[in-house]
Amino acid sequence: MHHRYRLRRDGPVIAVARHANYDGWQQARDDADSDIMQQIDKATAVAQPGDVHEYWIEQRNKAHGNEQHELSAAQGEADLRPHQAAAAGLGMQVAAKTAILERRLASVDNAMARHEHAVNTLKALTRRDRSAWYRYLTGLVVLALGDTAGILGAAISLGEYPIVAFGQALAVGFAGVVSGQAGADLKDLRMSRQRRRDADSLSEDEARYRHLFGGMEAGVNIMKTVGFISVMVVVIIAMGIVTLRLSVEGMASGIAFGAMAAATALGSFVSTYSYADDVADLLASLERSLKKAIADYDKLASSRVFIHQAEAIEMAKSLRTEHAHRGEAARWYLIALAKHVLTRNTGVAGHGVGPKPLSTGRRLRGDRK
Description:
two-stranded antiparallel sheet, 11 helices, 2 strands, elongated
């Protein structure tokens, strides 16, 4: 079913309910059927009389058609006004967010350029594959749980409250695992010494990362201090577990569990040493920065403000186009009604337009000179 128009002189052509009986159009046709042209001089030829270029009924319906066209356009403006107002109301927010979006896009471009440059320059220096992170994390969790379980069992055997024993055991287990993190510093120092090069020998691209080629000699003393502290942590944990197990299960158990605590710390050291790669860490950091910049840009770009304004603008355009077509359709229909009146009054209007008269100076074939 489709909309039809009700023709009005005091308002625009408006859509009526979608029913099979279109009262508006039927009324217009009835009006056209009731129009009667008074016979003045009955046409004797089939063609329209040449002395009447256009009948009043045609001029009247053309005028009404133009009226309906303008009224439909006015009605369209009234219908789309709320959508235009909504789009205009969002203008300030859209402008502000667009300015921020442009800066975010610049941040994305910058982060992408930095990441691509680092990958192209330093990728060959990395020693760590992508799956190493999962192996490293799994190893740390297993080591921490093992150390925690050994201490927890001994503490509960001594009569400690389970919740208190669990907290203490978890803290000690975590400390034992963290004590092995000094392995990362040792690995970074070794790899930095392997990469050591004079500043003059670095290419223009490599010069942007000259800290990776300096040898890290300035951090050796600090690394020694960190290593000493890590060893002390391992020794203290081992002594504590030995003492705890001695009081509960005897010498053999104490030594065994103390050795296992030390082995946990050493295992953490080896795992961290194997995983450490300062160049890969730099590339991973740049990749995270790039992903964050893209996520921030996407979040702002998908703001509902842009969507609502775009919807309002498109709705306004669609309504204006629709009403323009409806007004034009009404105008043509009124012109057709005028022709309908003429066809019902052929005695006055004839049956159609005759041939155009010959231009001045032309002669028919066979005319005498």
